[in-house]
Amino acid sequence: MTTSEIEREEMSFDVLIVGAGPAGLSAAIRLKQLKPEASVCVLEKGSEVGAHIVSGAVIESRSLDELLPDWRDLDAPLQTQVSSEKFFFLTEERAFALPFFERLMPALSNHGNYVVSLGSFCRFLAEQAEALGVEIYPGFAAATPLIEDDRLCGVIVGIWVLAATVSQGRNTRQV
């Protein structure tokens, strides 16, 4: 049986977002805030939200204040504020401190921003999205776009077939 012969279940949504990273989840939250009656779905290729995200970051909370004004009361994983920072010019053998760099380049200053685990932050955003009615499907990678009349109208999710085949003594995953 080829993939074109496989019978597929079809699910319809007003909005489909591919990727449960901070941008995708924020978009889903904002859409539900603006149009609560809209059906919004987020597909995530990872086995769980946050599984395929880079581990850490520094976040400026201004956008989060606008998206979720009560995030501080919602047990958000933003707890460690940047209280000091240092800039260095690095060579192969030495590091030279640049003590006034943040005054020269204020856009690079992170004072007052938050050091976070992006995986934890994405899980927090997913909880907020689901509380608003967003459907999140981890473990589903968008594999093929569906184009009708020169318009993207959906996606076909990847089909993973797990097979316990032995190839040079190792179990392999076949697609």
How far from one another are the termini?
13 Å
Strand order of the largest sheet: 1-2-8
What is the name of the CATH class of the domain at 13-75 and 116-174?
Alpha Beta
Whole-number mean pLDDT: 83
The CATH H-level superfamily of the domain at 13-75 and 116-174 is: FAD/NAD(P)-binding domain
Write up this protein:
- The chain is of the alpha+beta class and 175 residues long.
- Helix content is 21%, strand content 31%.
- Strand 1, helix 1 (22-34) and strand 2 form a beta-alpha-beta unit.
- The protein has a domain at 13-75 and 116-174: FAD/NAD(P)-binding domain (3-Layer(bba) Sandwich), CATH 3.50.50.
- It has 4 helices and 12 strands; from the N terminus they run βαββαβββαβαβββββ.
- The strands form 5 sheets. A 3-stranded parallel beta sheet has the order 1-2-8, with helices on one face. It has a 3-stranded antiparallel beta sheet with strand order 3-7-4.
- The longest helix has 14 residues, at 118-131.
- Mean pLDDT is 83; it is low at 161-175.
- InterPro entries: ETF-QO, FAD/NAD-bd_sf.
- Accepts electrons from ETF and reduces ubiquinone.
- This is Electron transfer flavoprotein-ubiquinone oxidoreductase.
- Keywords: Electron transport, FAD, Flavoprotein, Iron, Iron-sulfur, Metal-binding, Oxidoreductase, Transport, Ubiquinone.
- Its cofactor is FAD; [4Fe-4S] cluster.
